[in-house]
Amino acid sequence: MTTPHDIKRGVSLYSYQYETFLRRMTLDDCIAHAASLGARGIEVVSEQSFTGFPDVPQAQIDGWFDSLERHGAYAQCHDMFLDVKLYKDRKLNFEEMVTSLKRDLRFAKRLGCRNVRVIVNTPPEVVVACVPLAEELDVRMGIEVHSPFHFDHPWILRYTELTRATGSDHVGYVPDMGMYTKNYPPVFRDRFLRLGATPKIVEYILEAHAARVLADYVLMDVRKLGGNAVDLQMAETLRHNIWSNPRRMLEFMPWIFNIHAKFYEIDDSGREPAIPYEEIIPVLIEGGYQGHLSSEYEGQRHIEDAFEVDGREQVRRQQDMFKRLLGEA
Amino acid sequence: MYDQHIIYPGSVRNTDDGAGWQFGARLPYYRGQILSAVEDIAITVDGEKIAREQVRFTVRGRTFTLDELETEYVERWEFGEVAQVSVLRPGGLPAGEHQVTAAVQLRISYLPWSPVTSCTTGATIAPAHA
C-alpha cells in the first residue's frame, strides 16, 4: 500500500547545463527530455537558458511556451539571482535590491512560473518589500534554504520572523536537499584524490564528516597533519555539505513551495549515495507536501575532469527513484 | 567548473591584421554574467605572463579592455557563449607549438570569494602565407 500524496515531479534545467553549455542540447531538447520522464514541472535558471536577461527577446519566450506545450510540460519555477556585487566598489543598496527582485517577479510572470526561487543571499527585508507585487502577480517567493544554511540557521530564522509577520501566503521556502548530505559524496572524494589529495588525510576527512565534527576543527586538524592545498580544499567542503534532519521540514511544510532535489550521482543500484532520498521523501509525504520534486543534477562539475557527463541518464535515474519512492512504479 | 572548456578547441590564432593573437573563450560558470563581474582574464603563453593592458575582450561586436569590463553593467557574457579574447602583440605568435593558459576570475555575489577558473591548452600556429 502506498500512502496517498500530492507530490509532483519536475526537473530543473540546471541538470542539463553541461550539455547546454556545449550546445549539445537546446532548450527544447531539455524540456522534451524532462517531459518524457513524466517530470512535467519545468524549473529554469533563466540566465542559463535565455539570452539578454532581463530583456529576453519575445521570440525566446514564445519558443519556451511552444516547447512546453508541444511536450506536455509546464513552467514551474524561475531561479533568480541578486547581483549585490554588481559594482566593484559598493554593494547594491536596499532600493536597488528591491528593484532587482521586482524585475524577477515580473520575469517569472512572463515565463508563466508561479514560483520564484529567491537566492539565499537576498536580505529578508527585500523579500518583505516585494510582497505586495508578488501578491498582485500571484507569484510566490521561496527563499533557497541551501547548505551551509538550514532551517535553524540564524539567517533563515530571521527570514522566517520577518516574512511570517507579513501574513502573506506568497512568501516561503525552496529547500535544497544538499543540506541533507548524510554521507560524504563519493564523486567529491574521487575528484580530490585525482587532484592529489593525500589518501590518509582523505580517510580522516571522511571519518570526521561521518562523526559530524565541526568543519573548522577538521580544517585545523588537517593543517596539523600537514595536509596539502587539495587536502585543505577537501576539508573546506565540509562547511558546505552539512547534514541536518529532514524532519525539520515538517514544521515549515505549509510554506514550502518547491524542493530542489539536488543530487551528485545516482549509482548503478539506483540510489544517491550521499543524500538519503529514501529518508527524505517519506517526510514530504507525511507532511502533506504538494509542490514539486525538482531534479537538480550537480554531479557534472565533480566528474567533468575525468568522465563523460551524461545529465540525461542521471536525471532519468533520479526520476526512476522518485517514481519508486512515491509509489508510481 | 567548465575549466577545460574555457579556451575553445582549435581557436588560438594570429589576428588577420597582424596586431596580435586571439582565442575563443567561454565563461566558466553556470549562468551568464554581466561583464562588470569579470574581474580578470589572466593569460600566460609559454610560461610568459601577458600584461593586463595588452588584453582585449570582444563579445557581439563590442571590444573592451579588462578595465572597461569592470564598469560595463549592461552587456553580458552569456552562458556557453564564445567571446574573443585578444592579446595585443605585433606580429602575433611565431609559427609552431605553444602552450596557452587562460584564468578567469569572476565576482560572484553570493560567494564571499572571487573564484578563479583556469584552462591550459596546446596550440599550433601555422606559418604565415608568403
UniProtKB/TrEMBL annotation, chain A:
Keywords: Isomerase
Domain Xylose isomerase-like TIM barrel positions: 32-324
InterPro entries: IolE/XylAMocC-like, Xyl_isomerase-like_sf, Xyl_isomerase-like_TIM-brl
Signal peptide segment: none
GO-annotated molecular function: isomerase activity
Pfam families: AP_endonuc_2
Gene3D superfamilies found in the cross-reference section: Divalent-metal-dependent TIM barrel enzymes
Top-level lineage group: Bacteria
Cited PANTHER family: HYDROXYPYRUVATE ISOMERASE
Protein's UniProt name: Xylose isomerase
TrEMBL record, chain B:
Family in the record: Belongs to the C-glycoside deglycosidase beta subunit family.
Pfam family, one: CGDB
Domain C-glycoside deglycosidase beta subunit intervals: 3-110
Molecular-function annotations in GO: lyase activity
Keywords: Carbohydrate metabolism, Lyase
This protein's record includes keyword Lyase: yes
Top-level taxon in the UniProt lineage: Bacteria
Listed name of the protein: C-deglycosylation enzyme beta subunit
InterPro entries for the chain: CGDB
